[in-house]
């Protein structure tokens, strides 16, 4: 169980305890609040995250209004580990990029694995623009794309800061995903070729069809071995429990062993570029 789910389960147990102390059944609390009984059950069993309004209403209903601050503090601590994309995107793409920049600026060693796209710190402006366009299609966010692209490019300045090291691993499949037009992907591949030779940056590609000891199920970032960030479809998770960070570091080592670097990475990128060019020619002749 993740630290986020553990905290949510603990919050649910506290809500249940308060209800029991008041001598109320779940159905009685639901009726008083105008909720479905299933919502009470989900909250108490850690299956649903309450809002601040929910926990304040709960505290008042069970006769413990003074406990509202305790519950909201628990909820806010919980939310530091889980932030939905819908909530983050409501503040705009630029705000989210600046939040990532803060975590990067407070770290000296960053490990990144991406399985479905090029890492943000290595993206070209055109590739980033198409990534943000895809996000807007899903979350219906009216945020300014241009501001987001500029913020992402500003983030990339950290790659040249002295005293920092970056190690990127990219599953080869991510280089074949057509998230952007072929000419944009061609420029992105050229950017990766150039990044392979930078001093403080190490770029590895996990090849398709090569031996691998673990499935690359999703991307993640590791900051100084004190924080792991994981992007799911609906949310961003922040993992700080050392035992869980250790699991990600073990996965990282396994993926690194399967990856190719240096000249071998250049050759793989050249093959991907050749496949892209061949696909363009076939479309042109169709």
UniProtKB/TrEMBL annotation:
Cross-referenced Pfam families: DUF5753, HTH_31
UniProt GO molecular function: DNA binding
Domain HTH cro/C1-type: 15-51
Entry superkingdom: Bacteria
Annotated protein name in UniProt: Transcriptional regulator with XRE-family HTH domain
PROSITE patterns, A to Z: HTH_CROC1
